[in-house]
Amino acid sequence: MSTITAPSTATAALPVSLRGVGRTFPSPGGAEPRLVLRDIDLTIAPGEIVALLGPSGCGKSTLLRQISGLDRPSTGSLTIDRAPVATADQRCAVAFQEPRLLPWRTVTRNVELGLPRALDREAGRERVAELLELVQLTPAAALKPRQISGGMAQRVSLARALARGPGVLLLDEPFGALDALTRLTMQDLLVDIHRAKPATIVLVTHDVDEALALADRIVLLGTRHDRPGATISRILEVPGARPRDRASTVLARLRAQLLDALGVPSHHGT
Length: 270
Hints:
About 30% of the residues lie in helices and about 25% in strands. The chain is built from seven helices and ten strands. A hairpin with a 2-residue loop joins strand 9 and strand 10. Helix 3 packs across helix 4.
């Protein structure tokens, strides 16, 4: 595995705390409001990787938006480094399933979009160059999005998110649109990036194997028939340092437990 050097501007990882977080959305036509999340209690340590896992529509992305400040909880409190999250929080950066690159800008210029406004031009150029090296895209710096692959575009998205120097990196199905082999490569790259720049990472995924490969803890979200709104049904610790042997018997046992908790018999696979 290649050695990656951390950007000189790396920011310390920050702790995240959620206490009694809930989110209710209004329904059209005066119908009963829709409760999506309820009673979320979670503490995330600095530098930890936490995966949010659960069925589609259970509120994983909604929870990620609460942490980022892109949405506000209806109940409860949320802090980063013991300071409340208000509007879109500059201590966080978000990367989505789609890279969302501007087609008329080069790879370099797309990464520049993530730079803090207060950073001077020379420092910004240095940071972008370091990040392109970090995600192994230096040779593609002058290319446009149409000239690069899907996996390369997702690396640009990661570099843009890291350009801010976030203490918390939020990833919403970042590899979900990639083919299987590229997805595995991107997972390994994320492990390398985290080793070089150990931000706190919260990862939304539908992929049990991805969660097991990347996370220190897996937070399983689910709903009960007798109560609306998703809450934490289980938190599972994943042992072992990264990179992990995906074929290990330990991960196989954890995989079976997670699939059973998700209502999928483990012998059927994902």
